[in-house]
Design goal:
Layout lengths: L11 E4 L36 H11 L4 E2 L2 H6 L14 E3 L4 H14 L3 E4 L9 H4 L2 H4 E7 L5 E3 L13 H5 L8 E7 L7 E8 L3 H13 L4 E7 L1 H11 L8 E8 L1 H16 L7 E3 L2 H12 L1 H6 L6 E8 L5 H15 L5 E4 L4 E8 L4 H20 L18 H5 L1 H14 L17
Parallel strand pairs: 1-3, 1-4
Antiparallel strand pairs: 2-3, 5-6, 5-7, 8-10, 8-11, 9-10, 9-13, 12-14, 13-14
Helix pairs in contact: 1-3, 7-9, 7-12, 12-13
Length: about 425
């Protein structure tokens, strides 16, 4: 869930009992790092308090071990990797069933206590290039609404034109509309063969142009990751790798042994026309694991460039055809602002991140980061992109929503929120602002 900083109002934080397993994300950063604080105005009198009576009631339903006010657990569920001040909830509840969630929601609604659905707390996703986003993989959900009712969305049919697509509405709503308790997922077969490749380039443009041509040629590459020379240096220092200090692409190919070899050859040919260096690929599992482990550690590798720093993350996504232009503009603005800001990206879908590594006490530096980020987001939206490719809106990206979607669309979102959650109890203040009656 993006920007998992808890609401300033008293609340219960709902923690999912089951975490998604087998996450093979390329993201590498545990949560969204928002770049600006937005005051969320609420009337304190609108919400009730988590008192002893409510805690006793919840414990009678779920058992003492599943309702906690332990300080360590509260702090764990009240912070993320952003520079927001931690805001621990008043209680964390671990429901064991959909019925438990129903009872919890009903109890909190009766007392006007906000609820923040909390999952694994990773905000991670991977393998988008070959298999699509998680939104596309979700076939249906079981969810508890703010009024305590349970809905099931989707069906086992291959297609449906029946009613509104509530599955897509709930997925990505950041816990503001419903608490998801069950998910039906699209599965993919394990590939017969897997290979990974690393390829340095003489320029950022050459690397990104290779991505564009690979996608446009419809080569079924499973992963494409971009690291600029600053990020490569950080990874080498942190993960003890020996990558060439150049803009670099990591690839992964899935398929039959023959198909994997052919994909690698095709990509190598494209890269050759864009100023690549060596093109090294391997099917050895240990080599692949080492390569992707280095990529997964990119966020912490970047932080290690400046001890005691904080990482602030830009998360734009643009049409593939405009990717080179936007990455080069970002590099130039970073240079002019004299910031430490590696660029990494799951560029197979047009998504890239600028990791601003800053001194959180340096107001001038923070102001420079905000200027560069705001400019980057504005440029992304201007070319038909988005302010957030994967990590969500939370608090930090609220200022960009109107320029991306327009006021009528935001009004429609507010109307949806009001219809589903009229008391504004589910993750209040995220995505949009709504004051309950």
């Amino acid at each position: 869930m993006a920007d998992t900083q808890a609401s300033p109002e008293p609340e219960a934080s709902l923690a999912a009992n089951g975490h998604a397993g087998g996450n093979t994300s390329l993201s590498g950063n545990p949560a969204t790092q928002s770049l600006c604080d937005v005051p969320v105005v609420r009337r304190a009198s609108s919400y009730g308090r988590v008192d002893d009576a409510l805690l006793r009631h919840l414990r009678s339903i779920m058992g003492d071990s599943n309702v906690t006010t332990n300080r360590t657990v509260l702090e764990q569920h009240g912070r993320d990797e952003s520079y927001h001040e931690p805001m621990p909830p008043n209680a964390v509840v671990f429901p064991q069933s959909t019925h438990h969630v129903q009872q919890l929601v009903a109890a909190c609604a009766a007392r006007r206590v906000p609820v923040i659905p909390y999952g694994a707390g990773t905000s991670l996703e991977g393998h988008v290039a070959a298999y699509g986003t998680m939104r596309e993989a979700v076939l249906g959900v079981t969810a508890v609404l703010p009024n305590g009712q349970v809905i099931k969305t989707g069906s086992r049919a291959r297609k449906s034109s029946s009613g509104y697509d509530l599955t897509r509405l709930i997925v990505g709503s950041e816990g503001t509309l419903a608490v998801v308790t069950e998910v039906s997922l699209r599965l993919f077969p394990q590939p017969e063969a897997v290979s990974a490749a690393v390829c340095p380039f003489t320029s950022v443009a050459g690397a990104v142009d290779t991505v564009i041509e690979t996608i446009q040629t419809a080569i079924p590459v499973a992963r494409i990751e971009f690291l600029d020379e600053v990020q490569v240096d950080a990874v080498n220092r942190y993960s003890k790798t020996h990558l060439e200090l150049s803009p670099t692409l990591f690839f992964e190919f899935h398929g039959t042994a023959a198909a994997v070899e052919e994909q690698a050859k095709q990509v190598s040919t494209i890269a050759s026309s864009n100023g690549r260096g060596s093109f090294q690929w391997s099917t050895a599992p240990e080599e692949r694991s080492k390569l992707w482990a280095a990529r997964h550690s990119a966020y912490y590798a970047a932080l290690a460039l400046r001890p005691n720093s904080k990482g602030l993350l830009a998360d734009v996504c643009v049409p593939i055809s405009r990717l080179t232009e936007l990455v080069l503009l970002a590099k130039e603005e970073i240079r002019q602002a004299q910031l430490v800001a590696p660029i990494v990206g799951h560029v197979g879908d047009g998504n890239f991140h600028v990791l601003f590594i800053v001194d959180p006490d340096d107001q001038a530096e923070l102001a420079a980061v905000k200027r560069v980020n705001d400019s980057l987001v504005a440029r992304a939206i201007a070319v038909g992109g988005t302010c957030s490719g994967e990590h969500g809106v939370g608090y930090g990206k609220l200022p960009f929503l109107e320029s991306e979607h327009g006021r009528p669309a935001l009004d429609a979102m507010a109307a949806l929120k009001a219809a589903w959650d009229p008391l504004n109890l589910f993750n209040p203040g995220k995505i949009g602002q709504f004051t309950p009656p």
